[in-house]
């Protein structure tokens, strides 16, 4: 067993509105079957389409699992590509959820920033996956739609200091099958983990460089 297994959480949503089957959860279950390789401990769960459920579920997911990355997947009836969302928004939640509820403040986090960006560069992830000849088109968006998708993303970005991602998928068969969506999620999440790894190596490198200079500096004073 690898001691340094990376923990990754991937979520999909339950059915809502005209989405009697939610392709996001179908795709996440497909990803769960495919897996992310030996080095990754993947945990998947289905998120209710309810503001209050998200408020209680997300903190426990982050706390309990201490994941390196949390990826939320949601369906968009308007999407024709697999869409990577760069940021989550705090305000504008007027649409009623599956419990016919919406936050009185119409926002996620009282006094939270308007918008939180993922630490991941979605343009870079998009380029890499599209260049890999996957057969599924990936694009990037900066508006996750001000419903449970956006709300969940913002909450997760807030809790995870930006170590979160959101992926919108089209409904099943429009144009992609569940297997194609699963393969796309697998490729995308792998790419995201690789980028996080590179960033971490760079950070450590910077830190050690800095550390090294400090020592040299002290050394000169000693003589």
Provide an overview of this structure.
The chain is an alpha/beta fold. The protein has helices at 23-34, 51-65, 122-131, 148-159, 178-222; strands spanning 6-13, 40-47, 69-75, 82-85, 87-89, 115-117, 138-141, 164-169. The chain has a 6-stranded mixed beta sheet with strand order 2-1-3-8-4-7, with helices on both faces. A two-stranded antiparallel ribbon has the order 5-6. Helix 1 crosses helix 5 (178-222), helix 2 runs parallel beside helix 4 (148-159) and helix 3 (122-131) packs across helix 5 (178-222). The protein is globular and about 50 Å long.
Give the SSE layout.
Elements: E1 6-13, H1 23-34, E2 40-47, H2 51-65, E3 69-75, E4 82-85, E5 87-89, E6 115-117, H3 122-131, E7 138-141, H4 148-159, E8 164-169, H5 178-222
Parallel strand pairs: 1-2, 1-3, 3-8, 4-7
Antiparallel strand pairs: 4-8, 5-6
Helix pairs in contact: 1-5, 2-4, 3-5
Kindly summarize this structure in a few lines:
This protein is of the alpha/beta class and 223 residues long.
Backbone shape? globular
Helix share, percent: 40-55%
Number of helices: 5
Give the C-level CATH assignment.
Answer: Alpha Beta
CATH-assigned fold name: Aminopeptidase
Strand order of the largest sheet: 2-1-3-8-4-7
How many domain regions? 1
Question: Notable features of this structure?
Answer:
223 residues; disordered C terminus; six-stranded mixed beta sheet; single chain; two-stranded antiparallel sheet; 5 helices; Aminopeptidase; alpha/beta; globular
């Amino acid at each position: 067993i690898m001691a340094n297994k990376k923990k990754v959480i991937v979520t999909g949503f339950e059915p809502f509105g005209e989405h009697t089957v939610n392709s996001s959860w179908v795709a996440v279950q497909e990803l769960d079957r495919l897996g992310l390789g030996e080095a990754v401990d993947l945990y998947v769960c289905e998120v209710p389409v309810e503001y209050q459920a998200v408020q209680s579920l997300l903190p426990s997911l982050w706390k309990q699992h201490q994941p390196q990355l949390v990826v939320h997947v949601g369906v968009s009836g308007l999407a024709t590509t697999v869409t990577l969302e760069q940021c989550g928004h705090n305000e504008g939640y007027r649409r009623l959820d599956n419990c016919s509820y919406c936050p009185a403040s119409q926002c996620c986090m009282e006094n939270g920033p308007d918008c939180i960006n993922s630490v991941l560069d979605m343009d870079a992830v998009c380029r890499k996956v599209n260049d890999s000849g996957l057969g599924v088109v990936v694009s990037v968006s900066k508006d996750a739609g001000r419903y449970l998708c956006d709300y969940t993303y913002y909450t997760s970005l807030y809790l995870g200091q930006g170590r979160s991602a959101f992926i919108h998928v089209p409904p099943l068969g429009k144009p992609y099958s569940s297997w194609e969506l699963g393969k796309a999620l697998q490729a995308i999440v792998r790419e995201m983990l690789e980028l996080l790894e590179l960033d971490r190596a760079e950070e450590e490198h910077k830190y050690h460089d800095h550390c090294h200079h400090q020592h040299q500096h002290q050394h000169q004073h000693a003589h």
